[in-house]
C-alpha cells in the first residue's frame, strides 16, 4: 500500500526528481513550527507500549539495558530486522547538543543546523570500522557559512558551523546553495573516499538522502531534526533505515506502510515522540510495526571529542610568518585562539609563546638529527 506520503525505500531506482518529491512529501519540515508539541504523542503509542517485536542480541536475556526512559541519556540504537533485510539506526542527541551549543555560543538556528548535520553523520558512521571517520560538509553560500561534522563508529563526533551566531533567516536560506561533500577515511586506506552532490534546498537530511542515493547508490530513508524552545534544545535526533542487499520486498513494504501510517498521524511524529519522552527502542518498535520483527545490534552513548591541545596550537602558530609572531611578542600581546570544534579557548602570554616556540624548535632539532643518522 503506497500512498503519496510513503517514503520509497527503493530510492536507487527512482529519478532524482521523483525521489526528491517522495522524500519531501514524507519528511516533516526541517524547521519545526514555533509551537511546542509536548503532549500529542500518546495516541501514536497504541501498539508500542510493550515491545514484543524486538529481540535482544544473542547472549543477553532482556531488552532492559537498551531502554532509556524519557530519553534521559543520549543514545545511538541500531537494530536489524530478523530477516536481515533492513538496518535501523536511531539517535537522540539532546544533552550533547545543549552542551555544545553553550560551549560554542551558538544561536538557536546555528544549533539546529549543527545538530541536524551531527545526526546525519553520526547515524551514517554507525557500523563503520573502528578508526574510520565520516566527515559531512555542507558547503553553502548562505549566511551560515557552511557546516562541518566528523563522526566515528564509536559514537564520538566533532563539528562546527561557519557562523555560530547566524539568526533571522529560515534554515534553508541560511544554508544557501552549494554542495554536500562526504569524506570517509581510515588510517589503513591509501587515500580517502570522497563523494559530492548538490544542495537541493529541501533541508539537511533530505540533501544527505539525495547524496546517499546519487553518490553511493544506497537505498536509505534518513531523517534528522532539532526542536528548540528559545536557546534550549528540547529534542534532537533522527533515524536511518537502510535496505541491505537482497532485502525482502515484503519487509520493505511493511516498513514503508508503517512509516506512512505514522506520518498520517502526524508529519512531525518522530520529533513529537522524542520530545514526548518515547525512547528509541519504542520508536523502533513503532517503525517495525506488528508484522516485522527486529533484533538489537547495539546501543551506545554518543559523545563529543576533540584532539585540540596546546601543542597543536603551537604547531599551527609555527606556520604563521615568524615576523608576525615576533611582532605579537614585542607588543606584549596575548595570543588567543579558540578551537572551532569544541569551543575551548587557549590563551598564551608573550612569555608562553617564546617558551613554547623554543620547546618546539628544540624538538625539531632533535628530530632532524635523528633523521640525519
Ligand atoms: Zn577542541
Automatic annotation (TrEMBL):
Residues 1-25 form the signal peptide. InterPro entries: Heat_shock_Hsp33, Heat_shock_Hsp33_C, Heat_shock_Hsp33_N. GO terms for molecular function: protein folding chaperone; unfolded protein binding. Pfam families: HSP33. One of its GO terms (cellular component) is cytoplasm. One of its GO terms (biological process) is protein refolding. Gene3D superfamilies: Hsp33 domain, HSP33 redox switch-like. Transmembrane segments: none annotated. Keywords: Chaperone, Cytoplasm, Disulfide bond, Redox-active center, Signal, Zinc. It comes from the Eukaryota. This is Uncharacterized protein. It comes from Triparma laevis f. longispina.
